[in-house]
Amino acid sequence: MKISARNVMKGKVKSITHGAVNSEIIVELPGGAEIVSIITKSSAEHLNLKEGHEVYAVIKATNVMLATD
Fold this sequence. Notes:
The chain has one helix at residues 41-46; strands spanning 7-18, 22-28, 34-40, 54-59.
């Protein structure tokens, strides 16, 4: 796999919650940190995602917002 995004992290699918249109996928990274991804249900089915499968979390963003109280 070659991709232009610089932020690619390998992890394992921890849980999948399917909704009517979208699916919430929680990916556990080495060390225990988690990333949550919301993708279409059809994409989750097309990728054949299952708990325990290894996946890549690819983050491509032009902006990162920060906030304080």
